[in-house]
Amino acid sequence: LTPFGESDYFNDERENVRQKVNEWIRNNKMFDDVIDFDKAVRDIASPYRINPVYNSGDNVHLNDKGYCKLASIIPPEKLF
Description:
Strand content: under 5%
Number of strands: 0
Largest sheet: none
Radius of gyration: 13 Å
Number of helices: 3
Order of helices and strands: HHH
Distance between the termini: 23 Å
């Protein structure tokens, strides 16, 4: 789950749930592989929010650069 800090939806409880879900996804052995969208677009200085370069302005959705970043981290062999 990508960050949404500083949005109207953000609070500590929701961020805690987001972190727990991402941790489960990253460490669960049910999946063959994981592509970490959170890691790709989060702000390194404030990981609870989207990197400003990728933020559409509402602090929830990515802009075109953000979606291009997500696409760029998907290995081509995983597309088919």
